[in-house]
Amino acid sequence: MNKYHDDWIIAAPGILLLCFAFLVPVAGIMVLGIKNPDGSLTISYIERFLTDAYYLGVAWRTIKLSCIITLVCAIAGFPFAYVMARASPNLRVWLMILITLPLMTSVVVRTFGWMVLLGRGGLLPEALYLMGFVRRNYSLMHTEAAIIIGMIQILFPFMVLSIVGVILRLDPRIEEASRVMGCSFLASVKRVVLPLSIPGIVAGSLLVFTLSVSYFITPSLLGGARLPVLAGSIYETATKSQDWAFAAAQSLILFIGVLILLIPYISLTRKSHG
Amino acid sequence: MAAVVLNNVTKLFGETAVIKGISMSIAKGEFVSLLGPSGCGKTTLLRMIAGLEQTTSGSIIIGEKDSTALPPEKRDIAMVFQSYALLPHLNVFDNVMFPLRMRNLGTRQEQARRVKDVLEMVQLSHLATRRPRELSGGQQQRVAVARAVVSSPQVLLLDEPLSNLDARLRESMQEELIQLHRQTGLTTIFVTHDQEEALSLSDRIILLNEGTIEQEGTPAELYGAPTTRFSAGFMGSSNILDVELVMDGDACRAMLSAEDVLTLAKGYVRGGASTITFRQEDVQLAPAGDSTCTARVETAIFLGSRVRYVVRAGLHCIRCLATDGQIFKVGETVALQVAPNRIRVLD
Amino acid sequence: MVRAVPPWVRGAAALFVTIVMIFILGPIVVVAGVSFTAGDYIAFPPQGLSLKWYRTVLDSNVYVQSALNSLQLAAVVTASATVVGTGMAIALHRGRIPGTGILSALMLSPLVLPTIVFALGLLMFWSSQVGRTSFVSLWVGHTVIAVPYVIRTTLAVLSTSDRFLEEAARTMGAGRWKTLIHVVLPQCLPGIAAGAFFAFNISFDEAIVSLFLRSPEIMTLPIQIYTQLEFSPDPSIAAVSTLMIGLTVVMLLAIDRLLGVQKVAG
Q1: pLDDT tens-digit readout, A66-112
Q2: Which domain-ending residue is among B208, B229, B250?
Q3: Which residues in C lie closer than 8 A to residue B88 (C-beta atoms)?
Q4: For a Cys-Cys bond, which of B111, B250, C75, C255 suits B100, CB 3.0-4.6 Å?
Q5: For A22-70, how does the pLDDT look when each residue is reduced to its tens digit (9 = 90+)?
Q6: Range of C234's domain?
Q7: Any chain C CB within 8 A of the CB of A177?
């Protein structure tokens, strides 16, 4: 179509970049995961993943940790988002900036901060020791708890932003109406705002879950080699054992899992954007 | 000489025809309104003249130059948008200068002088350095108009430019538009759905309905002599009655019922089922007595200087706007009269 | 605003928000604190105050070189992502090229699809089709993940502008390209600036794509830190991290001056 040639021209760099630097490489890795060296199709790599207890353990840990992270983010995210939505616009912007500040610092820097806080002699283990929960020289490093704490800090903003968008679009008069009809403050939040925020909570949960299953720097630094998650396992397989086909197969599994969750996410966010 | 000529233009959006073969010729200096309900194609037609929509068939000639295939920037036109579309990053002066810069009209000094003149004409000289968002709605509207007239285009296109203003501002802007038209003498095409606006501004009104011209003429013609049921309804004639016409000697009478009769003006010679129309302010009510048509008052609404009645004569509901002192009660029987020359028979 | 919120709820809300904020910002504060230690190993609270670890960082060839690499990379990524993203955003906003809906979903997909899959894919593709990984491979990889941010910020600004501006410009004698330069781009500027901020920030902080696409001679700052964390962390990491955070904060303040903070957060 010649009619909109200017649109094509300004979109062309993006389309080329998308195709050659994103779609083709990602498609390539998908194909590599189900192809023998001679080019025929195979499910042997996937089979290897699904039958090896070690990798099943990796998958299970990934899903379990992501579920916990998502749940905590959702439970803490809704009240936070509600407070933020009902705060004065100025305060809201500053909360928004502060809560997204971790997103604007490098993942290695943030993780380093947690390593200091969670490691031997760090503030958290010391506090636990003083409260009598743990023995001296206890370290939270290389535990699943460490991974969960580190990841929540990173992913919490995504949840809050998803929910805040939905609450801000609610008509505040709905709450006033429910108060007039006899709801207490908390009841009106629980019975009116919460149900209406469900789309935001679900969208935020899907987003947090998909992001948490694919992170690897934080889990690998805080969890260490003994607690690998799927993304970390992909990195190890690709760089340490140089088994690219198997790394590709694991990527394929991760990718498909994420894609399955993203489809409802996209339809949800599209609906709420109206 | 015609400033704009449309030859049998049509527009298809996919399968649906939005403009179904419209021809018109607009004389230089004329102020023409395209009037019609939403969805009648008036805005599409204006956008076709501007070159913002492609013409499916037919031709558009602007200033004796076939412009059918020209993009908007190559046509000698200017347009005022409903939202004004002022460029938010430029101040008032630069906004008005924009068309001159883009069309390379004159030197920099000449451009600046023209902008100054036009701003003076719309009384905005003191706001020249303001940004659009610092202006009121009416001021923004004047900037949009100034920006449109500054390049002295062959034709000025106005797309419902007054619809975003409140009622009082709209009235004063109407007066300003009339004055501006007189000063500049620009050929103007004005799109509106508001019949009063069209009546008060135009030299000529073209009434559109479903992509065709329903009726065209001077405001007086459209107001006083609608030829179709659609024109009559759209121009605010609230009484459109399906009646039997009977010849009685050389007078033609409309039978509202067996006993109730309205006499038509001389010259109508026809009988059988027809549609007649008359305006609510042309109906006269009087205390019941000796008359050819009686009616019963169904509702009476007091409007201050006037009273609006809905009365029933036979099977017909008739609306009337009474200005004289006498007030009738609901349920009362009244004599109803319409001057014969005020009643029109529709095609 | 809803009134009549019980005071204890207000108090609880304030406490809750404070705790969350401490949790979110704590690690960053800790990093900054560690960097000022006078001691020889990582500890929080710091053992005495000194700037000696900043001295170490600035004297260290490794840190300075990787910082220069990162800045250079972030600069070119910002340029390319801004150009690519702005053009794409304008085309998507106009929505006239066929398949706009799918295109916009695909363009934004690097935001949500696993970066590690993309990074591995690009590494394999690059090795088989182009050759050794280099500065250029990092540039391409970072651009792909930075472009969606530019698209989002630019689209957000465009969606609030008068949709008849372009048509108005055309009726005033501006052709397609003049309209783009004199009307559309000036509208986009706040979005482009916010997008450029994100692009720079992402490239400067990025670690995943860099881990895969790095080459031995190009060490970026985050990779340098990552490697040190795995082997021999000392307070110099805290110092260099604090410098990185400082750069982000400075840029944030600059963009606030330029656009108002609302624009960036929204």
Answers
A1: 999 999 999 999 999 999 998 888 898 889 888 888 888 899 999 99
A2: B229
A3: 161-162, 187
A4: B111
A5: 999 999 999 998 888 888 888 888 889 999 999 999 999 999 999 999 9
A6: 62-265
A7: no
Class of the domain covering A54-273: mainly alpha
Both B203 and B333 in a single domain? no
**Total of domains in chain C:** 1
Clarify whether residues B151 and B211 are in a common domain.
yes
Which residues does chain A have within 8 Å of residue C107's beta carbon, measured at their own beta carbons? Answer: 14, 18
**ipTM score here?**
0.88
pLDDT of residue A138: 82
* CATH number of residue C84's parent domain: 1.10.3720.10
pLDDT in tens, A147-176: 999 999 989 999 999 999 899 988 888 888
Question: Please, which residues 129-148 of chain A have a Cβ atom closer than 8 Å to chain C?
Answer: none
The domain segmentation of chain A, as residue ranges, is 54-273
Domain count, chain B: 2
Whether residue C33 is contained in a domain is answered as no
Chains in contact with C, where contact requires at least 3 CB pairs less than 8 Å apart: A, B
| Nearest Cα to Cα of residue A112 among C227, B209, B113 | C227
Nearest to C43 by CA among C224, C238, C221: C238
Give the domain-ending residue among B201, B229, B257: B229
What pTM was computed for the model? 0.87
Whether residues B58 and B132 fall in one domain: yes
pLDDT band, residue C262 (cuts 50/70/90): low
CB atoms within 10 A of CB B76: 17
Residue in C161, C162, C170 closest to B72 by CB: C170
From the centroid of its chain, how far is CA A217? 13
Q: Which residues of A touch C241 (CB under 8 A)?
A: 106, 108-109, 112-113
Give the pLDDT of residue A272.
Answer: 52
Which pLDDT band holds residue C241 (cuts at 50, 70, 90)?
A: very high
pLDDT digits (tens, 9 = 90+) for B215-261: 999 999 999 888 999 999 898 877 899 998 988 888 888 988 888 88
Give Cα separations from B18 to B9, B22, B41, B47, C164 (angstroms). Answer: 11, 11, 6, 12, 21
Range(s) of the domain holding residue B282: 237-345
pLDDT for residue C264 is more than 60: no
Instruction: Say yes or no: B233 contacts chain C, CB-CB below 8 A.
Output: no
Chain B: residue whose CA lies nearest to C170 = B73
**C12: in domain:** no
Shared domain check, B164 and B67: yes
The residue ranking higher by pLDDT, B186 or A132, is B186
State pLDDT tens for residues C81-111. 999 999 999 999 999 888 888 998 899 888 8
Task: Let me know whether B318 and B177 are in one domain.
Answer: no
- Asked if C24 and A99 come within 8 Å (Cβ–Cβ), the reply is yes
